[in-house]
Amino acid sequence: MRVPGPNGYSHAQATTGRERVITGNRQTDWAFADAYVAEDDALRWARDRAREAGLRSVSPGAGAALRLLAATVDAKAVAEIGTGTGVSGIHLLNGMRPDGVLTTVDTEPEHQQSARQAFRAAGFASNRARFIPGRALDVLPRLADAGYDLVFCDGDRQEFPDYLAESLRLLRPGGLVVFEGVFAHGRTVDSAPQPAEVLRLRELLRTVRESPDLLPSLLPVGDGLLCAVKR
């Protein structure tokens, strides 16, 4: 049975019409979201260093979402996998408590040195960030159980399912785990054969959705933020 919607259309027709409008303007919407929160000189400097090093950075919209999420959980302790040149770290620190500490892990010490400069330029004291060089799956087991309010994962995407297991151990109840780049530029939902990285992202999405220990949401900002609250 078709239920009449506004202007006499069926509900299905009305919904389809709205979906067409949303789809048709999606790129414009994303561009507007990215430009909505202005970034300062320190963030622009960090983005330039990332671009020069051939590194991907979170989009301005995704960065604003990270800042919001950190503020929402009143984060005092945040663990970040993938320091890069400090773009995501600045956003996280902007949302954290004034006495909060960001523990950030990266395999490349030179990238972390750029992040140190970016944090300093953004006005953060040196004791607001703890830099640990090394592979995430070697470093994370050394961090304290239930000692973190938020874990942000932006490292090797093939290791994302492994990061999830470590994140659940690190998070306090009510804490947040966030994964960046889960859309893989549209490949995650593409039916064509995909590389191992994309298959691992699909595995992560299924595991998070089906876990009784997590309350998940998928945010369509940047290249996709998968967020979940630890129950």
Describe the structure.
The protein has 231 residues and is α/β, with parallel strands linked by helices. It has nine helices and seven strands, in the order ααααβαβαβαβαβαββ. It has a seven-stranded mixed beta sheet with strand order 3-2-1-4-5-7-6, with helices on both faces. α2 crosses α4 and α3 runs antiparallel to α6. The protein is globular.
Provide a quick synopsis of the model.
The protein has 231 residues and is of the alpha/beta class. It is built from 9 helices and 7 strands, in the order ααααβαβαβαβαβαββ. It has helices at residues 11-24, 26-36, 41-53, 60-72, 87-95, 109-121, 136-139, 160-170, 196-210; strands at residues 77-81, 101-106, 129-133, 148-153, 171-180, 214-219, 225-230.
Please write the string of helix (H) and strand (E) elements.
HHHHEHEHEHEHEHEE
- Number of beta strands: 7
Strand content: 15-25%
Please state the oligomeric state of the protein chains shown. Answer: single chain
Uncertain residue segments: 1-22
Helix-strand category: alpha/beta
Q: Helix share of residues?
A: 40-55%
Give the integer mean of the pLDDT values. 90
Tell me, what's the shape?
A: globular
Total of DSSP H or I helical runs spanning 4+ residues = 9
Largest sheet: 7 strands, mixed
Distance between the termini: 40 Å
CA gyration radius, whole angstroms: 19 Å
Keywords summarizing the entry:
alpha/beta, disordered N terminus, seven-stranded mixed β-sheet, 19% strand, 231 residues, 7 strands
Provide the fold topology:
Blueprint: H1 11-24, H2 26-36, H3 41-53, H4 60-72, E1 77-81, H5 87-95, E2 101-106, H6 109-121, E3 129-133, H7 136-139, E4 148-153, H8 160-170, E5 171-180, H9 196-210, E6 214-219, E7 225-230
Parallel strand pairs: 1-2, 1-4, 2-3, 4-5
Antiparallel strand pairs: 5-7, 6-7
Helix pairs in contact: 2-4, 3-6, 4-5
